[in-house]
Amino acid sequence: MLENNYGKTTSDYCMFIKRFLDSNFIILLLYVDDIPIVGHNTKRIQSLKRELNKSFAMKNLGLEKQILGMNITRERKNGKLWLS
Question: Which of 18, 26, 56, 59 has the most CB atoms around it within 10 Å of its CB?
Fold first, then answer.
């Protein structure tokens, strides 16, 4: 991730973030074999996935429904996300 200009956060060494000049960002969490990625620009996320796929085999399992024992619920219409 560091080679792709992502910074490691000090609060969680498994979290990487890259900020772009247009105020967009991508956040990537790396927990064992799970890699949830969030960001506003889907083209940039797809580009990151292609780069990562060059280094190791990956599967796209779609939208994350659970991570670290927490269920994820989305309400896209209102821009809300819940973890429980």
Answer: 26
* DSSP assignment letter at 8: E
Report the C-alpha gap between 43 and 72 in whole angstroms.
Answer: 23
> Region 51-62: what's the mean pLDDT?
86
Q: What is the average pLDDT across 13-30? A: 92
This prediction's pTM: 0.79
Measured distance CA(43)–CA(26) in Å, rounded: 11
Six-digit token string for 56: 């190791």
Rounded Cα–Cα distance for residues 55 and 38 (Å) = 20
Q: Where are the beta strands (DSSP E) in 1-84?
A: 7-8, 15-19, 25-29, 37-39, 66-67, 70-75, 80-83
Nearest to 18, CA basis, from 47, 56, 50: 47
